[in-house]
Batch of 2 targets.
Target 1
Amino acid sequence: MTDRKAPSAVGYKRPPKNTQWQKGQCGNPKRQYKRTVKGTIELIDEAFADQIDIVENGEARRVSVFEAILMQLWFKEISGDKRATAVRLKYQEFVAKQNGGGGGEFIIKHEYAPASRNDK
């Protein structure tokens, strides 16, 4: 005669039947799903899309972070910073590759007041 334990026996590797998952029961009853981690490109895009206030010629205006970076790069390039020129050229190459070989141009519009003739 075999010595079998009753099916309701509880012990090592035998959890109580009444606490086991029922068929069709979800293990996450409150449905709190794990949040997905944002990718690096998405985080950078969000950071560049933020708006900041700048003061230009005594006037305050809101621009995107990306536009502010390009303006700073442009000002440094005009003042003769070779590193700024290298960064701009590298960015232009990157834009050209992203556009499938199309023109890698970006245009910065900035107006300067013409110099008066008395400033010689």
Target 2
Amino acid sequence: IVSARVVPSYSVPVYLDNLGFDVPSFFNVYRDTFFIFGDEFYESMDAGFDSLVYEFPSLSSGREYTLRLYFYNPWDRKLKLRLEVDGSSRGNAVVKPGSIEVVERNISRRVVNGSLLVLRVKRREGAYAVLYGFEFYEKVRGGGIQTQGQERRIRYFLSVPSIVSGKGYLRFGIPEAGEVKIRIYDVLGRRRYMLSSRFNPGIYRIPLPLSRMPQGIYFLLFEYKEHKEKRKIMVIR
């Protein structure tokens, strides 16, 4: 999703996401805006005048994690960003003009004493606080390649925009391979869109054809195994 990934040794993925889209990431708590400077994946990024804030829920207390952050600087002066995890400083990320910087931080079991971890990226020098992607891994003991255990570590979530004026995107994460059904109905009960396909474990961003639909209220139905959710979407022009 972010790039070609090398999973840290003896680790399994928990959360992975690309940033910088019109619909904020499920994990984003605060951003001021987003930028898309080009077609490359790293040219789309979240941005904050002062800071960016993300929350990672459903973590296991007493476990160790690895947090990998991806930065890109399209400006002609360096960026210096302060990293904080649950209010404690985790050093700085320095990104030279026109370059990509990957920063990795270990999160010890002493830090994860609850189910929620908060990441803050604060601007110290440069135009904005930015971030174009992240990866969150849980460290496992005993070594070896994880297979089914790795799939179960990815958490289920669903993020649907409530108001759309142009293109709309649905984001979801599934822990195991399975059939996913997405349907959109208008207020008269007429089906306007349907997607039914099998997905592997992971986090996905699916475009919805809302820009081709008339202004009004629609209902999105999402099904994955025992999960069935209904969301209302308002399309405006």
